[in-house]
Fold this protein.
Amino acid sequence: MGLLAPASMERIVAARRAYFDDGREDGSLIDPAIYRSWSRCIAAARSESEAIAFEQVGRSRLSELVQRNRMLLEAGTGPVADLEKAIAGAGYAVLLTDSRGYAISVGGALEQQHPEIRQAIRPGVDLSEGAIGTSAMACALKERRPVRVFGPEHFFSANKLFHCAAAPIVDPRGGLIGTVDITRGSSHADFGALSLVTRCAHAIEYELFRRIPARAIVTLAWQPHSTEPSADLILAFGDDGEILATNEATRRFMGVDTYQIGLQYEDLFEGRFGTTLTLLQGARGAIPVQLRSGICMYASLWAREGQGAGLAAPAAVAVAGAGRAVRLKPASVPDTTTSDFGDGRINEELEIGLKALHSGLPVLVLGETGTGKDVVARALHERSTRRDAAFVAINCAAIPESLIESELFGYEEGAFTGARRGGAAGRIEQAGGGTLFLDEIGDMPLHLQARLLRVLESKEVSRLGGSATQRVDFQLVCATHQDIEQAVREGRFRRDLYYRINAFVLTLSPLRLRPHLKALACSILAGLSDGARSFSPEALERLAAYPWPGNVREFRNAIIYAHAIAPAGERIGAGHFPRSVLVPVLPEGTATGGGQAGVLASLEREAMRRALDECAGNVRLAAKRLGISRATLYRRIHSGEV
Ligand SMILES: Nc1ncnc2c1ncn2[C@@H]1O[C@H](COP(=O)(O)OP(=O)(O)OP(=O)(O)O)[C@@H](O)[C@H]1O
C-alpha cells in the first residue's frame, strides 16, 4: 500500500463487500493491516452497522491521562505544531493518542470538520479498536507501523466519513507510547499523508532522545558527511559506554534488543568506548568505526541544544513543567564530595584512606568488577587536600602494552618513530600536585612494574628516550579486581611493588554481601530524579533479593532503566526493573546447600540462565551483561551448574 494515491472509493467499497459477504481479500487494494483489524472486530462479535459513541473520559481521568503521558505531550509540542502548520490548508485535524488509543491532544483544522468528526476528536475520547473499531491509530498501534485508513475501510459504517493516517511513536527504549494521527472528512488528493505523520512521529522520537541523561549520543551513517539525522542510527551511551537507548532503526539494523539492560559499546563495536569518545570529541566531523560484524560506518556526536556536540557535559538535562529544561546533578555518577557514600562501612574506610593519603601513603582499592573502585578513587581525590589539582587516571588493562610505557613516563622527541615533535609528558608527570590513579594495576606488565617502583621510591621520572629526570609529587591510588596476593604468589606481580602500594587497602565488598542495598538504591534514585521519585516497598524487596553479579554497575543500570520506563509521577514498582532482575525469590533453604548461601547460589544460577536466554546463548554477551568474565561463565556452564 505504502504512499500510493488513494484507490477509488467505489473499488474500496466493492472490496469491503467482497470481504464482509464472502471473506474474499484483495491485498493489492486494501492494506492487510485493515483486513486483520476487521477480522478482530468480527471475532469480537461486533456488527458493522452498530452505532458508535465517542465517549470522553471524566475530568479526573483526563488529567490522569495528561499526567501519565506528560513526556509524550512535551516532546510532541514542537513537531505537532509544525505538522499543523504544514497541513493547515488541507483541512486536517491532528491528534496524539497514548499507547492505548486515548486522544491526549487535538488540534489542526478542527473547525472545518463535520460535527461527527469533531465529536470524535476531543481529548480523552477512547479511539482504540475496542471502542471505535478499525481506524488508522488502532492499526498503527497494533502493527507498529504507519497505516492509512479511508472512509469505507473503517469497520463500522458509521465511521465512513473519516479519512485518516497515523504513525506509531516509539520511545528510545523501544516501548510503543502512542500515535500521531491526521484526520479529515475528505479523501481528496491525500498524497503524502502517511509520509507526513511518519516524519512527525520521528521528530517526536528525536525529541524524546534529547531528554536522555546520556554521556554521549552518537549517530551512525554510511557516509562521513550525512547531516540528516532521520536517516541515521542513533545510540545513547552512559558513562561507562553502556547503551541506554537506541532508535528503532538501530534496533532493526543491529538485530539486537539493545534497550535490554547490560549491553555495552564493546558488545557492538570494535575498540573501547573511552577511546572512541575521545576521538569523537576531538574530531570536527564523523569518525570511522567498525561494528563487531565487520561493517564500517561513520560515527558523529549528536549536537543537542545548549551543548557542544552530543555530550551531556557533567550535568544531565531533564524536563520540568511545560518543556522547560532544568539542570540536574550528573545522572549516574554519585556525588563523591559529600560525606555519605551510601554505605556506612565504605564511608568509614574512606576517611581512613584519606588520612593515609594525607600522610603520603598510597591507597589500594580492591573489589570485583563494578563495585565502585573508580568512584572511590575519585572520591578520595575530591575529598583530599589535592582536590584542586589534576586527577589523572590510567587503566593499565586498557592501554596496549606497547603504549603503556610512553603513556606513563612520557617521551622525548625522536624516542621512537612517530614520536611527537618536542616530546610529550607522561601521565605521571601530568599528575604532579594531584592524584595518580592506576586502575587495574594487577594487569601491568612485569617490566613496567620495576620502572614504576623506581618512580615511586625516588619520586623522579625520566621520559622515554631521555636521560634527564624530573621530580614528581603526587598522591597514589591503585585499584584492581584481581586477587593480587595470588598474582604475587604466582610471580605475575612484583612483591616489592605490592608492599609499596598496599599501605592502606580498601576492600569493596560485592553488592550481594552489602547490608545497605536499599539505602544505596534510594540514593542513586534521588540523584537521578533530584529527589522527586521513590520506590514501592516491593521494588526495594526485589532489589535486595537479586544477587547482582554485575555489582553497582548492574544495580545502577537497573535503576536508570526503571526510572526511565516507569510512567512520570508514578512510584517505581518491581515490574519496572529489567527482566533479568525479576527472578523469583526463593525461600531460604530451598536451594542446594540450604541457608542464605544456598539461596544466593541458586539466584546466581538463575541470573546466569536468564542472561544466557536473553542473549540467545551468546556467552560473551551474557557474561558482559552479568558483569563476570567469560571464563567464569564457561566454567559454570561446563560444570553443569547452569
Ligand atoms: N556508591 C555509588 N553510588 C552510585 N553509583 C555508583 C556507586 N559506586 C559505583 N557506582 C556506579 O557503578 C558503576 C561502576 O563503578 P566503577 O566504575 O567505579 O566500578 P569499578 O569497580 O571501577 O569497575 P571495573 O572494575 O569494571 O572498572 C559506575 O557507573 C558508577 O557510577
